[in-house]
Structures are given as structure tokens and as C-alpha cells.
Design a protein that fits this description.
OB fold (Dihydrolipoamide Acetyltransferase, E2P), 2 domains, 360 residues, 5-stranded antiparallel sheet
Length: 360
């Protein structure tokens, strides 16, 4: 492991911003810290960079404790949310700045700057002497990344660098940053509140809430097997319904009957032996629900009324209502429309494997 946090806590007076957090980052990995505002992700990043010291616990770089090592003495660098470029300098001068501080000769600095600009699709013949104030938001983002790479750091940290960029350019730069990370083999540690950024770019994601890590895993692992309702909701649109245990199903190993807030009893997967009266959250992803044609069966079925539908490009999202008024969201491919049953009534179904019971 290139970077580790072992029981790290950060307090500001009586307030605990980060509480007893432990994780490790692998060399050459794109590791993302993601969470809502106030979850502690930026405070944790500042400790990893060296801008804050832990109140308790240790930070280790290649196995050596670095708690007291200041940011400018660590083999790391950071791309800030504001990018922190020098507006009075040219693009080339911005990229060369960390090498100049390190005392590298002018010819070496210029050669390295040209290489990095070309690598980031900024033609050096056009951009090297261009004033940074004349660059677009996307161009400035690439200049900031070129400057971060210039000193050849072991780890590059990012503090929500795409938050101020328009949606279309942000999508492009997400893939561009991931592609650069793969080509350079550098370790990237990224902070964002955007689930989309985390899913697109990350090898692994750590989800934070109230200064603690709720779950760490690959995007697919966390999406497919969230540990609790908070993670499930944070990882995308979901249907979460309260259910109460009734009786086990002897003829269906790993399943049991639960009373749901849908007005009927359902057969669901069991995370552990069923306790009668136990309350859990039922997770069903919108894409796991399907409209049933006449004669078609599913492990669980309910009657619903279609309240509204929204076109989302290649998919359509339906808002439906069960007979007892419970609301559900369904997403299907655009051409996969509900069967014609007269009016706006339909049967909705899903299979046992497509639902999960979660801790609240």
C-alpha cells in the first residue's frame, strides 16, 4: 500500500470532523472519497496532503508515519477546487513553477512542460506562451493537472476540481482525468460530492457520513451490495420500503416472508435468520422492476397505477403507485413500454435475486 490511514481522528474543539477512520490506498489506484456536505471528506483530504495534523491516529506513506511531515516535504501534490493557477503567468510558466521552485534548470523545465502539455492535448506551439487568463475552464483544468504532474509526485490529490465546470465539459474531463491516470500509472486520491464522478473515474470508492466511512469498494460492488440504506440512496435512485419479518419459507432457502408497505406479503432474500417482527429496509433498484405482460410471472408481483412518466434519453422513468398509496420508481428501456391493459393500471414484478434487505 502506498498510503494508509490508521484510526485517524480530527477534532476542532469539541467537534469531531473525522472519527477513527482507517483505510489504505493501493499504488497506481484511482481512489475516491465521496460523501455529502459535512461528511468530513475535505478535512480527511487536508490531513492526507499535510495541511492538517491528525488529533489521533497515524498517516503512513509507504509504511512510514508522516503525521508531522508538512505538505511541502511530502512527495505529493494537490489540484485545488479553485485550481490556484497564477493569472499573470503564461501556461508554460504555470506548468514550470513547481520545477522552478525545485531548482531544475530552464531547459529541463521547458522540455518537461512541452511534454506534459502535449500529453494533455494542449498543443505547446499554441498554449505554451498563452496567458492563463485567456484559457477556457477546461483548458485551465488541464494546465492545473499538467502542473501537478510536472514535479513527478507519487500521489496527486484532487479537491473537487470539476465542481465549477459546466455539465458537458465535466463529463468529458472525468474521462480525460481517468485516462491520464491510467496512462501515467500515478496514484490519484480524489474528493467529490458527485456520485457520477466517483462512479466514472474510481477504481475504489470510500463513502463517508458524519466523519466515518460507511463502505469501501469498487463502484460495482457498492452499487450491487450496499451495506445500509444510506449507501444505497447515495449510490443512485432507489426504492426503499420498510418491511417487517413474518415467517421463514421452508421451501425457499435463504428467503422468508415479510410484510411490506405495499399492502401485501412478499417473499424476499434473507441477510440472516429471520426474526419475526424485525424491521428492515427493502431495496429494489428502479431498473430491476418490470411491467408484466398477461401470463408473465415474477417472484413478487403487485398491482400499480402509473402516475407519470419521464423520458431520459434511451430510458423512460415511470412513477407508479401501489394499491395502498406507496410510491415506486421504475426505469425501463425506451422501447420497453408497459403492456396495454386499459387505463393506467399495470402489474409490476421483480425476482427474488433483485431485492435486498438492508439495515436502516
Amino acid at each position: 500500500m502506498i498510503l494508509e490511514a490508521a484510526g485517524v481522528t480530527k477534532r476542532f474543539g469539541a467537534f469531531t470532523a473525522v472519527g477513527n477512520v482507517s483505510f489504505s490506498v493501493r499504488e497506481g489506484e484511482f481512489f475516491t472519497l465521496v460523501g455529502p456536505s459535512g461528511s468530513g471528506k475535505t478535512t480527511l483530504l487536508r490531513m492526507l496532503v499535510g495541511m492538517e495534523k491528525p488529533t489521533e491516529g497515524d498517516l503512513l506513506l509507504r509504511g512510514k508515519i508522516i503525521n508531522a511531515v508538512p505538505a511541502n516535504r511530502r512527495p505529493t501534490c494537490m489540484v485545488f477546487q479553485s485550481l490556484a493557477l497564477f493569472p499573470h503567468m503564461s501556461v508554460g510558466a504555470n506548468v514550470e513553477f513547481p520545477m522552478e521552485i525545485a531548482g531544475r534548470p530552464p531547459d529541463e523545465r521547458r522540455t518537461r512542460a512541452w511534454e506534459l502539455l502535449a500529453q494533455l492535448h494542449l498543443d505547446p506551439n499554441r498554449y505554451y506562451d498563452k496567458n492563463i487568463a485567456q484559457c477556457s475552464g477546461g483548458e485551465r483544468q488541464r494546465v492545473a493537472l499538467a502542473r501537478a504532474l510536472a514535479y513527478d509526485p507519487e500521489i496527486i490529490f484532487f479537491d473537487e476540481p470539476l465542481s465549477a465546470i459546466d455539465a458537458r465539459l465535466r463529463k468529458f474531463l472525468q474521462k480525460e482525468i481517468k485516462d491520464i491516470q491510467r496512462r501515467t500509472g500515478k496514484t490519484f486520491c480524489y474528493v467529490t460530492h458527485s456520485l457520477e464522478e466517483a462512479m466514472v473515474m474510481s477504481d475504489r470508492i470510500a463513502i463517508l457520513r458524519a466523519g466515518k466511512i460507511e463502505q469501501i469498494g469498487t463502484p460495482s460492488e457498492i452499487y450491487a451490495e450496499p451495506k445500509n440504506a444510506f449507501v444505497a440512496e447515495f449510490m443512485g435512485e432507489v426504492n426503499l420500503l420498510p418491511v417487517t419479518g413474518c415467517v421463514p419459507r421452508d421451501n425457499a432457502p435463504g428467503a422468508g416472508e415479510w410484510t411490506a408497505s405495499l399492502g401485501k406479503t412478499l417473499t424476499l432474500k434473507l441477510p440472516s435468520p429471520l426474526t419475526v417482527g424485525e424491521t428492515r429496509k427493502l431495496l429494489i433498484r428502479p431498473e430491476s422492476l418490470r411491467f408484466l405482460a398477461e401470463g408473465e410471472r415474477a417472484d413478487n408481483e403487485i398491482g400499480v397505477r402509473i402516475v407519470n412518466e419521464f423520458l431520459l434519453g434511451s430510458r423512460t422513468q415511470y412513477h407508479v403507485e401501489a394499491s395502498n398509496g406507496a410510491a415506486l420508481t421504475v426505469e425501463r428501456l425506451r422501447e420497453d413500454r408497459p403492456p396495454e391493459t386499459g387505463g393506467n393500471l399495470s402489474r409490476l414484478g421483480w425476482d427474488l435475486a433483485d431485492s435486498q434487505l438492508l439495515e436502516t
